[in-house]
Structures are given as structure tokens and as C-alpha cells.
Design goal:
The protein is an alpha/beta fold and about 475 residues long. α5 packs across α8.
Length: about 475
């Protein structure tokens, strides 16, 4: 059994900050002890590997609960494979992803799940799990939900957007929520009024408004808020918990806050793009705005402060990336002359931990809150805690040595995602990942890649541990 000691660092979890050495045995955290104690000194003499974290943070590996590797969308595929995407995630300090397996209309949930297992098997540099996208709610798929929950696929995503592709009407949503209430599955919702949005898209294109900026204008913030309100009401009728993905607008946050004030099990996720980017990016000239087309869309800058406040008040619990990259050349340009044909999605799985640390530097959130929203809360929300998301005896040794003083400039020239642009090109950040352990094995070591495809293991999940 191999032994690794991480010594000299400041251990930061969602609960506490302590100066401690960390002992890793057999891929798990065995113990923590005070620096320079006899106990800690005895570990060092018998260790196979000693990692010096003096002056650095020792934090749990990030849990990104919303990624789309190799997702088919708009006639193309997300440009990151499970191999390239999980490698990039590791570079950015994320050691677990939860990706979305997709059920096709007319097909079984099992068929969709098997397809995604085949894509990921023996390809991942870090551990991974799956949510299930429900595109076709019927008696057979409702029964399959029970089986998947038993197997550790314990969350199901539905869409109020994308009519003709993923869209479910209110009746189907209600039935899925009722099933989730019975079997313990957590319903995840893409909350936008897709029927109304399609009308606005048609009208915009007919009027000659074809540039990327109009993607944001037709997907009105009120249509996100309306769908969020409706999803909450349906969940309340069904007695089901609800997790709303990629919340982008002030009005949607207010709907979530009002529901939580009533004591409802309603949760919200936002993403770095909504915290750091805006409609100013969508309006960039020469079709550059296409780089920033995602759904829900980027909002005017004034929405950002409401998202940050929601993260501080816990009306938003999780920051995930919705990582779904498409290259600017050859993919995003499918929508030249028609914004509705631009593949929806941004790259970001490598940037999340650093961007959120920048928020710590700027005083928007505390260090512990950084770890809460990026590691612990997603692990609890999706049944991975305490194996993932914390540094404590018995947890997987998913550990990041983080240099809080290092400076970096984000650029497509230096990132590891398989995409030809960065959504944060030129942004200066303070803080950088130095070393990453996944179950005790180095994936990144002193800013050098040490991982391999196939190290990452599929991780069945328990049910939501965040219910109130």
C-alpha cells in the first residue's frame, strides 16, 4: 500500500481551515496531523512520496457536476472527448465530473446510458459519473428511472427548452417529478420557455436580426424566470426536490430564493460564464460573439451582482461549468447568417476553480465558500459526499495543491481543452493549480502532466444529501 504525505500546507474545506499535514494510504485520506508533530514526522520517514505544500493551499479536488463531453448538438459534436476533457479538468484542479448521458426519443434510458459508458470507458484521467437526460417520458422510461437510481444514476435532467429535440411538456415533467419523489431521484431542470423563445427566434430572423447578439435577446430573462417559477410549482405539486441548472438571471434567482424561503427543496446552479461574462461579449463584432453563445444566454452585467449575492446567501448552492465546447472555426460558424444555428455551449472545465479563486481574491466570496460551491456542495447534491468534496479520513485522496500567489493569463494558447478559443482570453488571474492527486495518484505534478487515460473510474452515486 503506497503512502503519500502532503506536508506544510493550509488545508481548506467547506467547514474549516487548518494548518495540517495529510497522510494518504491506498488512495484514501488516512489522517491529518499538526505540522511538525511527532505523529506527522513519523509519516514522513516511512512515506513513498512527500509533497511539500508550504505556503500553498491543500484543497479537495473540484467536483464539476455539469459537463457535456462529446455531446451531439446542432449537427455537430462537442469538441472535447472524455480523454481530452478530463485531462483539461485535471489541469484546472477538478478531479470528478458528472456528465450527461442522453436518451434519444423512442429509445430506452438504458440504451443512452450504455452509449455514454462506451464513450467514457478507459478514456478518463479523473473519476466520473453520469446524470440521465430524459428526452422521452413514458411508462417504460418512468420504470427505468427506478432501476437507474438503484444502480447509482440518481439524477434526471429535463428540458423546458428546445422543442422537437429535448423538450418535455408540463405533464411529462410532472410525471417524472412524481417518479423522482418516489424513488429518490433528483430532477434537474433546464428552465426556459422554449415554446415562446421559438416564436421570438422566428420573428427576429424574419426581421433580419441574425447576429449572435440576438441569441441573448430572444431568450429573454423573463422567460427563464417564468419557466423557473413553473418548474418550482410542478415540483411542489409532485412533492419532488428540484435542481435548476445554469441560472443566469436576477429574476430566476428571485424565484429560487422565494421558494427556499418557503422551505422547499429547491436548489440552483450557476456557471462562471454568467459570473464573469455578459451580453457585451455576445455583441462583439465580426461574428466573434458566436464564441459566447450558450443557453441560458449571457445576460447584461447588472445580473452578475445578483448571482454573486445568491452564492453568498446560499440561494444558489453550486457553480458548475456546463462545459460544452465547440470550435469557433468549423463549428460555431455553422450559424453565420442565422444565430439560431450556432451550436450552444462554452468551454470552461479547466477554468472554474481559478476563476472562483479570483472571486476570493476580489472579496466576493470566502475561501471556505469557494470550496463549498466548487467541491463540497456538488458532492453532497449528487450523492458523492464524503467520498468526494472534502479532505477528511476515509475520503478519496482527491487533493489539489494550490498556489494562491501565482499569476496567470488565461489563453487558448496555453489551455488544455480541445477547442480553438478561450472564453476568458487575456484575463489575468491570481492563483494556479500546482499538483493534483486523484485517489492518491498524481495527475498533475509541479505543473507537469502525470496522468493517463483510464485512471479515472466510473463512480456510482447515492441520492441527494442536500435536502432540507
Amino acid at each position: 500500500m503506497s503512502r503519500t504525505v502532503v506536508r506544510g500546507g493550509l488545508v481548506i474545506t467547506a467547514a474549516e481551515e487548518i494548518h495540517a499535514d495529510v497522510l494518504v494510504e491506498g488512495g484514501r485520506i488516512a489522517a491529518l496531523a499538526s505540522h511538525d508533530s511527532e505523529f506527522a514526522e513519523s509519516w514522513t520517514t516511512s512515506a513513498d512520496r512527500v509533497i511539500d505544500a508550504t505556503g500553498k493551499y491543500v484543497i479537495p479536488g473540484g467536483v464539476d457536476a455539469h459537463t457535456h463531453m462529446e455531446l451531439p448538438f446542432g449537427g455537430t459534436f462537442a469538441s472535447d472527448t472524455f480523454e481530452t476533457g478530463t485531462r483539461a479538468a485535471a489541469w484546472g484542479g477538478t478531479t470528478t465530473i458528472v456528465d450527461f448521458a442522453v436518451q434519444s426519443v423512442g429509445e430506452s434510458l438504458r440504451s443512452g446510458l450504455d452509449t455514454w459508458h462506451a464513450k467514457a470507458d478507459a478514456q478518463c484521467a479523473i473519476d466520473y459519473a453520469f446524470h440521465m437526460i430524459l428526452a422521452d417520458v413514458n411508462e417504460d422510461t418512468l420504470k427505468e428511472m427506478d432501476v437507474l437510481v438503484e444502480e447509482g444514476v440518481t439524477s434526471f435532467k429535463l428540458f423546458m427548452a428546445y422543442p422537437g429535440v429535448f423538450y418535455s411538456d408540463d405533464g411529462k415533467i410532472l410525471r417524472a417529478m412524481q417518479r423522482g419523489a418516489a424513488n429518490g431521484g433528483l430532477i434537474m431542470m433546464h428552465a426556459e420557455n422554449g415554446i415562446a423563445i421559438d416564436v421570438l427566434v422566428e420573428q427576429a430572423l424574419a426581421a433580419g436580426r441574425t447576429d449572435p447578439r440576438y441569441h441573448g435577446e430572444v431568450r429573454h430573462a423573463l422567460l427563464e424566470a417564468e419557466a423557473t417559477h413553473r418548474a418550482i410549482a410542478l415540483a411542489q405539486v409532485a412533492g419532488s426536490p428540484l435542481y435548476v441548472v445554469h441560472v443566469s438571471a436576477q429574476q430566476a434567482v428571485e424565484e429560487l430564493a422565494a421558494a427556499r424561503d418557503k422551505g422547499l427543496n429547491v436548489f440552483g446552479e450557476t456557471c462562471p460564464q454568467y459570473l464573469f461574462l455578459s451580453t457585451d461579449n455576445l455583441a462583439e463584432p465580426d461574428f466573434e460573439g458566436a464564441k459566447y453563445v450558450c443557453s441560458t444566454p449571457l445576460r447584461p452585467k447588472e445580473h452578475q451582482e445578483f448571482l454573486w449575492r445568491g452564492l453568498r446567501t446560499n440561494d444558489l448552492q453550486v457553480v458548475s461549468t456546463d462545459h460544452c465546447p465547440f470550435c469557433f472555426n468549423g463549428q460555431k460558424d455553422l450559424g453565420k447568417g442565422d444565430f439560431s444555428k450556432i451550436p450552444n455551449g462554452l468551454p470552461g472545465v479547466e477554468n472554474r476553480m481559478d476563476l472562483l479563486h479570483q472571486a476570493v481574491v476580489e472579496g466576493r466570496i470566502s475561501r471556505r465558500r469557494w470550496i463549498e460551491i466548487a467541491c463540497a456542495a456538488p458532492a453532497r447534491m449528487f450523492g458523492l459526499y464524503p467520498r468526494k468534496g472534502t479532505i477528511a479520513p476515509g475520503a478519496d485522496a482527491d487533493i489539489v495543491i494550490y498556489d494562491p500567489h501565482a499569476e496567470q493569463v488565461v489563453s487558448a494558447e496555453t489551455h488544455h481543452m480541445n477547442v480553438d478559443y478561450s472564453a476568458y482570453e487575456g484575463k489575468r488571474l491570481t492563483g494556479q493549480v500546482e499538483t493534483v492527486l486523484s485517489r492518491g495518484e498524481p495527475v498533475v505534478l509541479d505543473r507537469e502532466y502525470a496522468g493517463r487515460a483510464g485512471h479515472g473510474q466510473y463512480t456510482p452515486r447515492g441520492t441527494c444529501q442536500y435536502l432540507i
